[in-house]
Design brief:
The protein has 8 helices and 7 strands. It has 256 residues and is α/β, with parallel strands linked by helices. The protein has one domain (25-255): Rossmann fold, CATH 3.40.50. A 7-stranded parallel sheet has the order 3-2-1-4-5-6-7, sandwiched between helices. Bound molecules: NADP nicotinamide-adenine-dinucleotide phosphate. This is NADPH-dependent pterin aldehyde reductase.
Length: 256
């Protein structure tokens, strides 16, 4: 799916999507300290939406908190953003985050399961066991932890859109990144299955962000990563697509 066209009287899905995009939302993004998650957080804040973000590097989290405040300076929601130190691999930490947000009445309208990691380029038999485990624990189990604790909260609220960040390598494969490919194919499968479990009013999609110059891309592409777009140029397109998602998209595999 490409960025939806502006609403027209004859296109019901786009009318719904357009109306939805105009509302101010609370968006939970995992993995906000750098790369795509950070750029998306800043873009959404600039548009007036409230961002709840998490990742693990404390100094990057505190600088993001002030960058978000500046991005939404002219908006009435200035300083309402919440940035937390949460490791998505920890089921209990994600559970604590969900509990916290319920207490603060900051239940997300949209969740972007973005936190992810990749193995260093290596053939599968050369990938250290702990590296394989980290990829699986973050990309699959981290996503599942968020689904486990936030879907019930969204069901209670009777609405919610969940975006599981996938990859081109969740739909194709490459040498040297087998653990990562396995994890992103799992994200696609997980998304399709969960879509069948959600009640009306909710949707979950898998979203391939494209190929963007981030630390992750530098890890697998080396210096060629510089040939690809920056996260800052990607974020406006991604934000528009995500804000236009509706329940009609449930179960879809989309690409920015
Ligand atoms: N860049 C691309 O071309 C591309 C292509 C396809 C898919 N993707 C996907 O897009 C997403 C973002 O990738 P990126 O390129 O922006 O990668 P990145 O620059 O490496 O950023 C990854 C982010 O995830 C966070 N993170 C990692 N492990 C975490 C954990 N256990 N708990 C919480 N946060 C964690 C990192 O923060 P801390 O280390 O501070 O926790 C960081 O903020 C990933 O899911 C990736 O697989 C990227």
């Amino acid at each position: 799916m490409t960025t939806p066209a502006p609403p027209t009287a004859t296109n019901t899905m786009n009318v719904t999507g357009g109306a939805a995009a105009a509302q101010l939302r609370t968006v939970l993004i995992t993995g906000v300290s750098r790369g795509l998650g950070k750029a998306l957080a800043l873009e959404l804040a600039k548009r007036g939406h409230t961002v709840i973000g998490c990742s693990r590097t404390p100094d990057r989290l505190s600088s993001l908190q002030s960058e978000l405040a500046s991005a939404s300076e002219s908006m009435s929601n200035n300083n309402k953003h919440l940035i937390m130190n949460v490791d998505v691999r920890s089921n209990s930490s994600v559970e604590g985050l969900a509990r916290d947000l319920v207490e603060k009445k900051a239940i997300p309208d949209i969740i972007v399961n973005n936190a992810g990691t990749i193995n260093r380029n290596n053939r599968i038999w050369e990938v250290p066991v702990d590296e394989f485990d980290t990829v699986i624990d973050t990309n699959i189990k981290g996503t599942a932890n968020v689904l486990r604790h936030f879907i019930p909260v969204m069901i209670e609220k009777k609405h919610g859109i969940i975006v599981n960040i996938s990859s081109g390598w969740g739909r194709s494969a490459a040498a040297q990144v087998a653990p990562y490919c396995a994890s992103k194919w799992a994200v696609e499968g997980l998304t399709r299955a969960v879509a069948k479990e959600l009640p009306p009013g909710m949707a979950v999609v898998a979203l391939n962000p494209g190929v963007i110059n981030t630390e992750m891309l530098q890890s697998c592409f080396g210096s060629s990563a510089a040939l690809y777009p920056t996260p800052e140029s990607w974020a406006p397109r991604a934000a528009t697509l995500i804000l236009h998602l509706t329940v009609a998209d449930n179960g879809a595999s989309l690409t920015v």
